[in-house]
Amino acid sequence: MKIVLLGSGNVATNLAKALKANDEDVIQVYSPNVDHAKSLADLIGAEGINDLSDVEQDADLYIISVKDDAIESVAKSLKNVTGLVVHTSGTTDINILSSQVKQAGVFYPLQTFSKDKEVSFENVPLCIEANGEIQLSVLKNLAAKMSSEVYGLNGEKRKVLHLAAVFACNFPNHLYALANKILSQNGLDFDIIRPLIAETADKVMSNLPENVQTGPAIRADESTLSKHLSMLSDMPELQNIYQTLSNSIKLTLK
Amino acid sequence: MKIVLLGSGNVATNLAKALKANDEDVIQVYSPNVDHAKSLADLIGAEGINDLSDVEQDADLYIISVKDDAIESVAKSLKNVTGLVVHTSGTTDINILSSQVKQAGVFYPLQTFSKDKEVSFENVPLCIEANGEIQLSVLKNLAAKMSSEVYGLNGEKRKVLHLAAVFACNFPNHLYALANKILSQNGLDFDIIRPLIAETADKVMSNLPENVQTGPAIRADESTLSKHLSMLSDMPELQNIYQTLSNSIKLTLK
User: What is the pLDDT of residue A117?
Assistant: First the structure.
């Protein structure tokens, strides 16, 4: 398959590397920033372009991996291509593409990507959707080559998944950052808490989180809860978060 | 060293197994519940007792690993022992012991323990404190045999660490549970989100969390934030948590 990748952010970068590792033929990488386009294109032996009018018109697959609010304008520039056009967004409807092009789909990798840390795609859940059976099977074949976790999901379920991902990834990461804030203000290093973070995540690989909750709130240990709240008295924002989440944990006791 | 373990909960159980694995001589396990005492004692070849007056008086080390509010009464029963008496609590002052016994200390493993899942102690940070240099070196030697991560911390720093652990462990686990609530209400399995949880934790093993934050809040993506809030309109508790944590993430942008 001849593939054009439109985007050069975290998702696009990780996707480009995974496609390359699976011997897919990515022929072009587009980014409005020519340096970004070229540096990602160079990594995978593609051509880097920064003008949408330079996009090859006869590729088999166009992957739009840009910010959600830029998807539509990129899709408009692909009106005349005959290949399949997909986006990689968790929250964006497929209609934004199918109103512009004949063959439309979604190829949403449910993972948190950074440019610096390569992620093995083998275990990344790939959520796919398409506006036709043939298109869906093209995406299914590609996804199955890249990952053992392929899910056919409609837009509504994909949006639910994206919301759940905020709770399972973005919020926990922010809480790690708040833990580090507390530690560093008291001269303690983040290193000391890393094994705890690793074990907390590891525990739910084989258990449901509601069955392995620990800590003062689930024990209804009011003495520790009020000590902690008073330790946070000069950090009202953290105190509010502590109270909100502890109350929510206590609600599960009922 | 002859050791008496007082307690049979998650921490005591994991500690007992780790002591046994290091060929330490745990001679007795106490629990007010005789079945609990015996089943843990049997695991490690010790005597199970449920009466504090049966505690051997000439052991070298007494480890009190019971609920925080029960530590004092257990310590009182050890007034006449000559060995070193320690507790394993993150939040409890050493004075609760040193006011009762001559040799007192703290042996706090910073980890989340379940009875069913064995944790390798090698990477568990062991935080120690004692009321004398000799006592501290006894604990340091024991801890260094069990783990590569040994920290001498006073009570104030230990309490800070315990508070940070709530943010880094208890709260993230609850957010995993809320993610599962959202998924299951929409017929999606928790399995689909496990790789994301694993990667989110893995990412901060080599990065600081504040440098790898992702998601709509850190992008100030108001369109996605308001879509998510409206998806949670029939779950006001989750909506409140979403708003509180997103606001906190946005504060880091300033």
Answer: 81
- pTM, two decimals, is 0.92
Quick check: A254 pLDDT over 80? no
> Does pLDDT of A250 surpass 80?
yes
With cut-offs at 50, 70 and 90, classify the pLDDT of residue A64.
very high
| Contact check, Cβ <8 Å, A196/B170 | no
Share of chain B above pLDDT 70, in %: 100
Whether B170 has its CB under 8 Å from any CB of chain A: the answer is yes
Q: How far is A80 from chain B (nearest CA, A)?
A: 29
How does pLDDT run across B153-211, given as a tens digit for each residue?
999 999 999 999 999 999 999 999 999 999 999 999 999 999 999 999 999 999 999 99
The predicted structure's pLDDT at residue B197 = 98
Q: Which residue in chain A is spatially nearest to B235 when comparing CA positions?
A: A248
Q: What is the 3-state secondary structure (H, E, C) of chain B?
A: CEEEEECCCHHHHHHHHHHHHCCCEEEEEECCCHHHHHHHHHHHCCEEECCHHHCCCCCCEEEECCCHHHHHHHHHCCCCCCCEEEECCCCCCCHHHHCCCCCEEEEEECCCCCCCCCCCHHHCCEEEEECCHHHHHHHHHHHHHHCCCEEECCHHHHHHHHHHHHHHHHHHHHHHHHHHHHHHHCCCCHHHHHHHHHHHHHHCCCCCHHHCCCCCCCCCCHHHHHHHHHHCCCCHHHHHHHHHHHHHHHHCCC
ipTM for the predicted complex comes to 0.93
Whether B73 contacts B96, CB under 8 Å: no
CA distance A127 to A92: 13
Distance from CA of A152 to the nearest CA of B (A): 12
Chain B: residue nearest A191 by CA? B205
Q: DSSP string of A70-115?
A: GHHHHHHTTTT--SEEEE--SSS-THHHHTT-SSEEEEEE-S---S
Residues of B in contact with A209 (CB under 8 A): 173-174, 176-177, 180
Residue of B nearest to A215 (CA): B170
Contact B177 A252 (CB under 8 A): yes
Q: Please report where in the chains the tokens 């080390």 appear, as a residue.
A: B61
- In chain B, what residues touch A215 (CB-CB under 8 Å)? 166, 169-170
- Judge: B123–A179 Cβ closer than 8 Å, yes or no: no
Whether the Cβ atoms of residue A188 and residue B157 lie closer than 8 Å to each other: yes
B 127-146 residues with CB < 8 A to A: none
Residue A161 has pLDDT above 90, yes or no: yes
